[in-house]
Design goal:
Number of domains: 2
CATH superfamily of the largest domain: Ferritin, core subunit, four-helix bundle
Oligomer: single chain
Largest sheet: none
């Protein structure tokens, strides 16, 4: 009898209330984590891991600059040139956004977009692997521009994505292997999403 008396309606309501609060907390934490990781842009893609080997003229690297700006100025692009410029620009974007996070704290859209940049780099790594080409290391540090405030950071993001999109648009005018073309399209479209996010930040902070 004594054990039964302990579970009064009031106590049962109290226990139910604790369970509800715990459930709501778990749901909110799950939503928060998803909002910070679901933007990784893990787009379905199909890379031929045994492609037709590149011709000698396609496999020659003759870059004249760095990243998107180098690519846009280069009038004699090979497939390897394009892959190099693309990887440099993705490394540069990742480095820029990491610098912004380090300086101003982790916040959107940078915390989401930097994950997307990591995904972009991983896609390019697969292309390099498919052609058995050595994957270049990140040398973007000397090209990173450190903004003075969040508005300047957003403006930097806007220009970086505009240049990045223009670079991929230029690459897509060339006759490319299917896998390379598909990845360039995915990366261009991802950058269009990033551009929209940064433009919203500029509008908000201006």
């Amino acid at each position: 009898m004594k054990e039964i008396k302990k579970f009064t309606p009031k106590r049962i309501l109290y226990i139910v209330g604790i369970i509800l609060v715990a459930c709501i907390s778990i749901i909110l934490v799950t939503i928060y984590l998803n909002s910070n990781t679901s933007k990784k842009e893990d787009v379905k893609h199909n890379i031929d891991m045994d492609p037709i080997p590149l011709k000698e003229e396609e496999a020659t690297e003759t870059i004249v600059g760095y990243g998107a700006k180098g690519a846009l100025a280069d009038e004699d692009l090979t497939v390897v040139d394009m892959l190099t410029y693309a990887l440099q620009d993705e490394y540069l974007a990742h480095g820029e956004y990491q610098t912004i996070i380090d300086k101003f704290g982790s916040q959107k859209p940078y915390s989401n977009i930097i994950l997307s940049e990591e995904t972009h780099i991983s896609y390019l790594r697969e292309i390099y692997k498919s052609y058995n080409i050595e994957f270049p290391l990140d040398s973007s540090e000397t090209n990173i521009v450190i903004p003075n405030n969040l508005l300047e950071a957003a403006q930097t993001g806007v220009q970086a994505e505009i240049d990045n999109i223009a670079m991929y648009e230029k690459f897509l005018t060339y006759d490319l292997p299917d896998s390379v073309r598909d990845i360039f399209i995915i990366l261009r479209d991802g950058s269009k999403n990033h551009l929209n996010s940064f433009q919203k930040q500029v509008d908000k902070l201006s």
